[in-house]
């Protein structure tokens, strides 16, 4: 099920406001999650640069890349959700 289908179902479930308030709440939660992930990523990078080396460092760098991809996906969903409210 793609995001547009989900949004269509949300709008049909909440016909008066189109689920606008619920969508805005979800967007705010996603924005907080993205900000939190960004902070976590920066702290990890700083910690890794200062204390790790070799394969352990590489493993942490890979994990940071995974977190960054997750953050980007959250931001993409935020954009779509904001577009559905406006």
Describe this structure in words.
The chain has 86 residues and is mainly α. It has one domain. The radius of gyration is 18 Å and the shape is elongated. Helix 2 packs antiparallel against helix 3 (54-85). It has helices at 3-13, 20-51, 54-85. Keywords: Coiled coil. Residues 27-84 form a coiled coil.
Task: Report the average pLDDT across residues.
Answer: 78
Task: Summarize the biggest pleated sheet.
Answer: none
Query: What is the rounded Rg?
Result: 18 Å
**Contiguous helical run count:** 3
Structural class: mainly alpha
Uncertain ranges: none
| Total number of domains | 1
Approximately how much helix is present in the residues? over 70%
| DSSP summary, beta strand count | 0
Distance linking N and C termini: 22 Å
- Strand content is under 5%
Shape: elongated
**N to C succession of SSEs:** HHH
Keywords: Coiled coil
Quickly list its features.
86 residues; elongated; coiled coil
Give the SSE layout.
Elements: H1 3-13, H2 20-51, H3 54-85
Helix pairs in contact: 2-3
Quick description:
By secondary structure, the chain is an all-alpha fold. The protein has one domain (3-85).
